[in-house]
Write a structure and sequence with these properties.
Helices cover about 35% and strands about 20% of the residues. With about 140 residues, it is an alpha+beta fold. The relative contact order is 0.14.
Length: about 140
């Protein structure tokens, strides 16, 4: 069997288990002509265990209008907000502190994010997570 020819790659962030054909899913996938409800059902089934978090997904769309998708890890700011127990980050990072996270929280987030980061080891991943925390106005204790 010949390889399918890739037509497009679409990346979107959707709440786990709560995808609907409405925007952003419909507007991202509609122009490519794939069955949106098929994607929605498969995505919701694959992410039902992680309900409540935002899960990025990378959808590969082929010329015959079939598709495959790969789930990524939740965005670092989402994980840090959960660890800090805050609704949103600081509007003036560096001046106002929105919350605090511990070094253990940083390590846990780095371990979760490790597959999607371009870091060679855990220490490099922790440095990236610390930078994100600082840019969100979080204090690391």
């Amino acid at each position: 069997m010949a390889k399918k020819k890739l037509a497009a790659i679409v990346k979107i962030q959707i709440p786990a288990g709560k995808a609907t054909p409405a925007p952003p899913v419909g507007t991202a996938l509609g122009p490519h002509g794939i069955a949106i409800m098929d994607f929605v059902k498969q995505y919701n089934a694959a992410t039902e265990a992680q309900a409540g978090t935002i899960i990025p997904v990378e959808i590969s769309i082929f010329e015959d209008r079939s598709f495959t998708f790969v789930l990524k890890t939740p965005p670092t700011p989402v994980l840090l907000r959960q660890k800090a127990g805050i609704e949103k980050a600081s509007s003036t990072p560096g001046k106002a502190v929105a919350g605090t996270v511990t070094e253990t929280d940083i390590e846990e987030v780095a371990k979760i994010k490790m597959p999607d980061l371009n870091a060679y080891d855990l220490e490099a991943a922790k440095m990236q997570v610390r930078g994100t925390a600082r840019s969100m106005g979080l204090k690391i204790v």
